[in-house]
């Protein structure tokens, strides 16, 4: 696996994505990553068994309409190529694999995290690919076919002694997190437990762009950022200015969290997605995609339908 190398905070330019096309961006040669519009994506053969599971209206239409809820950019999960037009990243590559297996042309619609679920609910999107964690609450409205472990991590400036090994370790700290994410829910739960135990709550900060988050981290306005492990591992490796100070399952201490393709409950699509993913796992194309984005340690051996997710809380 190639190591991704860049000096300083050059990657911050890569994180300036949707709506910021006028700003400069690091080149592929600077980061060691292909960020061009020509991705030469890994492919998988058409899977006739998976195709047979598709509803006729989708199969006959010939397209797979994919919602990507990473509008502000989340490297390496989903972001824009150097042309500021072409969606690229881990989630996009997995979506292309599923579309390949189903004999469909993918149409990637980049949107906000909140509008992703609105689009799934309305039927605008056939599927959501956006680092979506399986939760028991979400299972009430959506069907899931898993394709990656869900780990979250805390990122802080390099060189400090603070480490996060449990919820008590965030008491009194200032933490940035994405609004409406599973990471936010876990942080809120930790705050509630800490307050009950007589500890100060963490101050939660929200930023619209990853660039703003990292500027706040570098200036000391926040103590850490809690986000998806792939994004943080990528940034730690490429920036040289930060480090991971804690890593956890996205589903809490008693359950390994899982990331899944997400579709409206009962729309008849999820079994086709599961079959497509299992075919890509079997032929090795799935492993190649994860290796490409340096997240092989989050691979699963099989795609599961609606497995246990992050529990409901009272």
UniProtKB/TrEMBL annotation:
<dbReference type="InterPro" id="IPR001638">
    <property type="entry name" value="Solute-binding_3/MltF_N"/>
</dbReference>
<keyword id="KW-0732">Signal</keyword>
<feature type="domain" description="Solute-binding protein family 3/N-terminal">
    <location>
        <begin position="63"/>
        <end position="297"/>
    </location>
</feature>
<dbReference type="Pfam" id="PF00497">
    <property type="entry name" value="SBP_bac_3"/>
</dbReference>
<feature type="signal peptide">
    <location>
        <begin position="1"/>
        <end position="18"/>
    </location>
</feature>
<protein>
    <submittedName>
        <fullName>ABC transporter substrate-binding protein</fullName>
    </submittedName>
</protein>
């Amino acid at each position: 696996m190639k190591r991704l190398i860049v000096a300083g905070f050059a990657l911050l330019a890569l994180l300036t994505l949707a709506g910021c096309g006028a700003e400069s961006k690091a080149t592929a040669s600077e980061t060691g990553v292909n960020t061009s519009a020509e991705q030469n994506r890994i492919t998988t053969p058409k899977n006739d068994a998976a195709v047979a599971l598709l509803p006729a209206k989708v199969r006959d239409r010939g397209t797979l309409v994919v919602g990507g809820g990473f509008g502000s950019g989340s490297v390496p999960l989903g972001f824009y190529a150097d042309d500021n037009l072409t969606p690229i990243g881990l989630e996009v590559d997995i979506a292309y694999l599923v579309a390949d297996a189903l004999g469909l042309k993918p149409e990637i619609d980049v949107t906000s995290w909140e509008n992703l679920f609105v689009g799934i609910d309305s039927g605008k999107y056939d599927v959501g690919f956006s680092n979506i964690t399986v939760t028991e609450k979400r299972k009430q409205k959506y069907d899931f076919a898993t394709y990656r472990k869900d780990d979250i991590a805390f990122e802080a400036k390099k060189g400090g002694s603070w480490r996060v090994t449990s919820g008590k370790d965030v008491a009194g700290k200032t933490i940035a997190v994405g609004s409406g994410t599973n990471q936010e829910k876990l942080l809120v739960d930790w705050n509630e437990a800490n307050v009950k135990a007589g500890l100060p709550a963490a101050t939660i900060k929200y930023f619209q762009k990853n660039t703003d988050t990292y500027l706040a981290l570098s200036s000391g306005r926040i103590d850490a950022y809690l986000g998806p492990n792939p994004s943080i591992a990528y940034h730690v490796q490429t920036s040289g200015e930060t480090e991971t100070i804690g890593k956890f399952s996205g589903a809490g201490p008693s359950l390994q969290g899982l990331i899944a393709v997400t579709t409206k409950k009962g729309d008849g699509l999820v079994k086709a997605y599961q079959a497509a993913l299992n075919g890509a796992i079997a032929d090795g194309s799935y492993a190649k995609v994860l290796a490409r984005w340096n997240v092989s340690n989050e691979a699963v051996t099989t795609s599961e339908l609606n497995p246990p997710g992050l529990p409901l809380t009272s």
